[in-house]
Amino acid sequence: MGGKTLKIASVAVVAVVIVAAVAMIPGMTEGERGLYRLDASYVEVSMGRCSASPVVVGTLESIFDAHYGDLPDRTYTHDEVMADTAFAETHCSWEPLVTSNPDGTVTVHSHTSVYGDEDVVMDVADSMVVMSTVFTDTLYYLLCQEHGVEPYSEEGLSHPGLGEDLRSMVAGGLDADYYADQGAEYMEAYGVLDGYLDLGVKSATKVDPEVLTDVMSRASGDGSSAVYLAYGSLIREDKQYRANTDPCRSTGSEYAFMDPQSIPDISACIDAVGRIMGFDEAVITGLIEDVQCDMYAVYRAVQSESDGDRPLVYWEYSSGKSVKTAMGREIMSFMGFDTRLMDGSEYDLEALMLESPDVLCFYDTDPRTMDERMRVY
Questions:
Q1: Nearest CA to 96 among 246, 226, 288?
Q2: What are phi and psi of 361, to 5 degrees?
């Protein structure tokens, strides 16, 4: 392995608009130490763009660019996507989380780890208070679909009508600084954070019920309806459940907990957010089909490039442990990679050199230097 060098692709993901550049690490030479010796591709991804929302398409595209090169400029119709039954049955078949009722209300299939399933009947919401960027990302894409603009394009970040809708629909939620960390550029571009009701935390497990009560009260203070959305898998104790629900009940607001963890869940999440926020059926369906077509383009390109091989991927947190999230494995499995090293374990230099992964993946917020990531001490 001593004569090999690491192939570096520095990738900036902006939703479905990808800006990719290939560069060698400054100072890297033949015979470098650590993981530089691997003949591996390197990619950085945003944690916020590895969730079950439309932005994951951009992550898939960036990983393809890093390992295989430029994604072929080929588009597919939705009829072509559905005609590929193996793909359609695996990635386009999903169970709805929300049902629209004849009286204009919606029934949301909510779920938490502590209490399991719970059906919540609510009015269509005017605004949302969220504890994950998956909900605001999905809302942004729905608004882009409704207004006929490309997400993260120049027009997609400057459209007056879209901005007005986004500001009215996002009332508040998780720590505002988190949006910048996760690349949610639309929040700043449209001034959403100017009147944002900040809960000051990044997880539903840390929510202060007094702060949430104040936020939900203010979000619905003008007689409008507000819904609180969070990841239900994180709510594992009765105390956490009450901290996240009692403030909603006391203020006459609604709540729903979702747990999207797979590629098909992207479609379910689009549908759920769309119905809760009152989007037309055509907008919801149009976005779902567009996302499925974009994913299929990556899927077909992977099939063409991989020749049945399963490149081994190693994906690491800044803590030094390998990523083992369900969505993380979904993403890498979709790319045709072998995910056996994504088990939450800590791999030292010797172990990784023995395994010899073909792809090295890190989060773009990893504070470590490149040498530290590459095990050069």
A1: 288
A2: -125, 135
User: pLDDT value at position 306?
Assistant: 85
Per-residue pLDDT band for 196 (boundaries 50, 70, 90) equals very high
Q: What is the pLDDT of residue 336?
A: 96
What predicted TM-score, i.e. pTM, was given to this entire model? 0.90
Place of tokens 């976005």: 287
- The neighbour count for residue 367, using CB atoms within 10 Å, is 7
What is the pLDDT at residue 25?
Answer: 42
Q: Output DSSP code: residue 194.
A: G
Q: 3-class DSSP state for residue 363?
A: strand
Is 347 within 8 Å of 280 (Cβ atoms)?
no
Summary mean pLDDT of the chain: 91
Cβ atoms of residues 5 and 344 within 8 Å: no
- Cα separation, 54 vs 363, in Å, equals 19
Structure tokens at 236: 């594992």
User: If you write DSSP's letter for every residue of 24-74 in order, what string do you get?
Assistant: PPTT--TT-SGGGGS--EEEEE-GGGSSSSTTHHHHHHHHHHHHT-SPP--
Tokens of 93: 């078949």
Strands 313-316 and 254-258 come out as unpaired
